[in-house]
Write a structure and sequence with these properties.
There is one protein chain. By secondary structure, the protein is of the alpha+beta class. 28% of the residues lie in helices and 14% in strands. The chain folds into two domains: 156 residues, no CATH class; 108 residues, no CATH class. A hairpin with a 5-residue loop joins strand 5 and strand 6. The protein is globular. 38% of the residues are buried.
Length: 311
């Protein structure tokens, strides 16, 4: 298994790791403030891999990096996160994990289950267990290779854990592609004096104390909610969909990419077919065009408070 994973990581320019399938510690689960409708509140499903695949013995975790391109800003610009720019990571991760499962066939007969952005098992906790990185203060996993700019996918398998992945060393046995040099990132935690992500978050969703992330105030979540209050509309600011603010200021993601800007008026004029042609390849389209147009109206009002919305 180890040799296959090493070659697979190099071939696809990803990071990968493998870990045991014991239940997750409850302490690693999001605090109650971070439980939003997109995440299951079933504790068994959130903590026990066995609840998803009977006989699971090992979990392979991969991290696929993504890019962010920029565009020119104007006074009427709205910000678009990486979710609205890059190819849908759900499709990419599932494709990679299906290919990996095929390549693992020489290891013997086994069953497997793929998780990509699962509302059940906490994939960040599994990525941490598999050695892909550490928990940053923004609640994301920070890796040596990609910083926090990568998406996580998991392959639950009934294959036994390799002997070299003991309880003591599984966190340091992970693989990185040789195509990109590793960043100078500490392996255990953020520097004690760094609060850049906390200070930059405009809604106060990030906290340094044990409460961590208040997902209900996270702009990325607010732009995906079905119903949004007038107070939450103001919190969105100029973020049209998703939010990368805490990632953009993180020194482990340096250099920070140029932001992607969009004119909200353009979104309000686009037909459903136009949205599909321009953004159909992205993960944000799962929320539907009505949510995207709603966000455009909110951002337009935030940019120009005196604007009277008659749509």
């Amino acid at each position: 298994m180890v040799e296959i994973l090493e070659k697979f990581a190099t071939k696809h320019n990803i990071i990968a790791g493998v870990c045991h399938a014991a239940p997750l510690q409850r302490a690693r689960l999001p605090n109650p403030l971070s439980v939003v409708p997109f995440v299951s509140n079933d504790e068994k499903k959130r903590t026990e891999p066995e609840a998803h695949l009977r006989g699971v013995k090992s979990i392979i975790v991969i991290g696929a990096g993504y890019a962010q391109s920029g565009s020119e800003q104007s006074p009427a610009s709205a910000h678009l996160s990486s979710l609205g720019i890059n190819d849908d990571y759900h499709v990419r991760l599932r494709g990679l994990l299906k290919e990996l499962a095929e390549e693992l066939k020489p290891c013997g007969d086994f069953k497997y289950k793929i998780l990509a952005d699962s509302p059940t098992l906490d994939e960040r906790a599994l990525a941490h267990r598999a050695g892909l990185g550490f928990f940053g203060r923004n609640g994301l996993i920070i890796s040596q290779k990609f910083g926090s700019r990568f998406n996580i996918g998991c392959l639950l398998t009934t294959l036994p854990l390799p002997e070299e992945f003991s309880e003591k060393n599984f966190r340091i046995n992970h693989f990185e592609s040789a195509n990109q040099p590793a960043a100078k990132v500490p392996k255990t935690s953020c520097p004690p004096d760094c609060n850049l992500c906390i200070s930059a978050c405009p809604t106060g969703a990030l906290q340094r104390d044990k409460n961590g992330l208040n997902a209900a105030r996270c702009i990325s979540y607010l732009t995906q909610k079905n119903e949004i209050s007038p107070q939450e509309e103001k919190l969105i600011g100029q973020q049209l969909y998703g939010c990368d603010i805490c990632q953009n200021v993180c020194p482990f993601n340096a250099p920070a990419p140029q932001a992607m800007y969009v004119n909200p008026e353009e979104w309000l004029e686009m037909s459903d077919n136009d949205f599909e042609r321009k953004y159909g390849h992205t993960a944000m389209m799962w929320r539907g065009t009505e949510i995207l147009r709603r966000n455009a109206r909110i951002v337009r009002k935030n940019i120009c408070p005196s604007y009277c919305d008659t749509d």
